[in-house]
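Technical annex B. To support the medicinal chemistry partners, we prepared a structural model of the target in complex with cobalt (II) ion, based solely on the information shown next.
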Amino acid sequence: MGDIQITPSILNADFGSLAAEVARIPGADWIHVDVMDNHFVPNLTFGPTMVEALARSTDTPLDAHLMIEDADRNAPAYVEAGCASVTFHVEAAKAPVRLAREIRAAGARASMALKPATPIEPYEDLLAELDMLLIMTVEPGFGGQKFLDLCLPKIRRARALMDKHGVETWLQVDGGVSLETIERCAEAGADVFVAGSAVFSADDPDVMVAALRSRAREAG
Ligand SMILES: O=C(CO)[C@@H](O)[C@H](O)COP(=O)(O)O
Ligand SMILES: [Co+2]
């Protein structure tokens, strides 16, 4: 298991001042950018041009979470846009192994996401191809949703499979992560935590990043 990392999602930030919003969280390890196409999920955000502008505005690496159809064709554009980590959904990829290799070959960390109802077991042998596995803890599409406790056993099983295969793959959770729920995720074996509304609704988002990090460290 790697050290605890906190990756605030900008989904609930002010889209009119993204560079300024990102500057409020210098303590973040990554900036999580939720790309939505209104097909894979019923919500629409932004595409590679906007992501590229954001990448130019910060030194913090970008962690793209692609909630888009036809990931095989569309994901490489986000490496070109400057994302240091690119996550595609397995439900949207026809050839996940080829895609993960393509992302790595282009110079970014390759990551694969699972929706709450998608099991980890069929993908056990893919773990070595991935730099990170994202287990969604809400149905993807919106920020501010309630954390789904039913995802905790899958986080535990994923951690056990990673230990069994001896891989260095990071285990990220995304959705409803807050001071109240982060301990449960860390105890289950997650080491990378996305938090959107918890961070951007705080009076001082950077203080919240630090608080989330210490709570996860205490529990992990
Ligand atoms: O990918 C998603 C939602 O689909 C997330 O990244 C959320 O944007 C996180 O927001 P909170 O649940 O933490 O408010
Ligand atoms: Co996300």
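Notes passed to the chemistry partners:
The longest helix spans residues 205-219.
The first strand starts at residue 5 and ends at 8.
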